[in-house]
Amino acid sequence: MSIRLRIVDPEAMEALGARIAGELRAGDAVLLSGELGAGKTTFTRGLGAALGVRGTVTSPTFVLARTHPREDGGAPLVHVDAYRLGDAAELDDLDIDFAGSIAVVEWGAGLLEHLVDEWLSITIMRPTGAGAAGAADDAGTDPDEAPVEPREVIIEGVGERWSDLGWLHAAGD
Ligand code: ADP
Ligand code: MG
Fold this sequence. Notes:
The protein has 173 residues and is an alpha/beta fold. It has helices spanning 10-21, 40-51, 88-92, 166-170, and strands at 2-7, 29-33, 65-68, 77-81, 102-106, 119-125, 151-158. It has one domain (2-159): Rossmann fold (3-Layer(aba) Sandwich). Strands 1-7-6-2-5-4-3 form a 7-stranded mixed sheet. The longest helix is centred in the N-terminal third of the chain and has 12 residues, at 10-21. Bound molecules: adenosine-5'-diphosphate (ADP) and magnesium ion (MG).
């Protein structure tokens, strides 16, 4: 089952993250795909804010994994940027407590699947041909420069945990 959404601006992307945060609990993993500047970190920022994490979620490009404790003592958010990781063994080496936290992994496609059995996959796409200037494949490029444009988001659940994505619709809009 997959759901396709049109997310018009960064605020709507944060709202999507917040909506999904409401479903997450310890042991859950979210796999984020999409080119640089697609909106993966923006999504995670909204997700983290809704979880009530301490500290703002920022792009972890120079930190492979950052653990954000929750104000309410709930399962922490572990935000991973796997951009520089070569294989699943390197991701495994980070010793992430997948069972005890909510893991959100940017650039984890092809890696995370080897470490967890179930995950929620979120793929963010920019409109074709748009944002060429902001779409440089240089990780040092400041994505804050990206112009506001709609994104196409495809959400797919893998495993029994995510076999029903009806809650995504039930939450409104
Ligand atoms: P990534 O983590 O995928 O590299 P970021 O979330 O860091 O991307 O950056 C996305 C950039 O695109 C931000 O500057 C954000 O303001 C901008 N942006 C413009 N339109 C949207 C949209 N519809 N959804 C999400 N981000 C958007
Ligand atoms: Mg990012």
